Amino acid sequence: MNFSPGFTVLIFCRLVCAKSLKRACSGSLYYRKPRSIGTEIPIEKTEAQAHRKARFFLTRCLLGGIMKLLGSFGVAFLLSSAFLGAYGITPAQGQSTQVVNQLPPALRAAVLSGNSAAIIAAINTLSAGNPALAASLAAQTASFGESMIAINPQAAIAITQAALTVASRADVQAAAPQQAMMIASASARVVASPAVQQANPSAVAAVTMALVRVASNPAVFATSPTLGAAIAQSSIAVANALSVTNSTQAVAIRQSVQQMTSNPQLLAISSTLANVNTQQQQQQQTQQNGVGQGQTTPPSDSTDIPVVVEPDSESQNNASPT
Q1: What is the DSSP string of 138-150?
Q2: Residue 4 pLDDT more than 90?
Q3: Distance between CA atoms of residues 181 and 158, nearest Å
């Protein structure tokens, strides 16, 4: 449990002043024992005077408690640090919270629900037919999906799938090709995560094929050939990782990448893409030889997708992130 500073001060002062408050409420302000033996003699003669004295005494106790609290600030800091270390927000949670707070309220609610259809509907409603605005909202959504990898892989792939669905629209790619590429690259980093692959391999395969199609658009690819080539190579690694559990979908991913790396328009832009095509053909040949000899070729290591900081824009399947 996390307590607000005001509540902490109140509890501390109550503990410090408990005995004094008990004295104030028990009536000891009204009477005291005389030095000589005898009955108790009233000190205050009027109820108003007694109330004023009680209020003064209570104020003094509270101020004294606050001063003691400030005096023991070092101890309090150490205790709070230990508490946050055991129960506090992790860096991944802090990052996801920062990202989601930047979303419009309607989109934030949809994203936190983890429902892909609700996220897409929220983006369509907020964009009001403006494809550039839809691209901006989808890019923010994809960024949040990526931040959820370590917290909730199932939610990460569901949110990413919604963002990529918006980026797959032709009008969005035509209006904002750079943001479409950034959404594709963020999606590639999500599907490259082993935790996400284990959480929902079928969704990973579907998202991988979709992001390859987005990156294969010549206008989108031209915004960052380096990212496009990295996406192609990373998608091959995803296909290799899924070849055991989802062999049919893994073949479909390889076919999508093959079409991308064989596209003359893209090859004219990036020589690196030609190298990816050559590596893929060599790998397929090696796998075929291994199968013919009864051997299994281990999947290749995944390729890291560069993280590109998105420039400031002009606007800002059920798996709940929480």
Answers
A1: HHHHHHHHHHTTT
A2: no
A3: 19
Q: How many domains does the chain have?
A: 2
Q: Which of 53, 87, 121 is the last residue of a domain?
A: 87
Domain region containing 60: 5-87
Q: Of 30, 59, 87, which residue is a domain's last?
A: 87
State the amino acid at position 321 in one-letter form. P
Identify the bridge partners of residue 31 per DSSP, sorted by sequence position. Answer: 42
Which run of H or of E encompasses 41? strand 41-42
Indicate whether 36 and 98 sit together in one domain: no
DSSP letter string, 57-113? HHHHHHHHHHHHHHHTHHHHHHHHHHHHHHHS--HHHHHHHHHHTTS-HHHHHHHHH
Are 205 and 119 part of one and the same domain? Answer: yes
pLDDT in tens, 98-132: 777 888 999 999 999 889 999 999 999 999 999 99
Both 67 and 142 in one domain: the answer is: no
What pLDDT does residue 46 have? Answer: 59
Same structural domain, 99 and 205: yes
**pLDDT of 155 over the 70 cut:** yes
Give the per-residue pLDDT at 61: 64
Residue 29: which pLDDT band, with cuts at 50, 70 and 90? Answer: very low
Least Cα distance to 159 among 191, 130, 198 occurs for 191
Phi-psi region of 27 (alpha: psi -120 to 50; beta: other; left: phi over 0): left
Question: Model confidence over 31-45: pLDDT tens digits?
Answer: 444 555 555 545 445
**244 plus 114 within the same structural domain:** yes
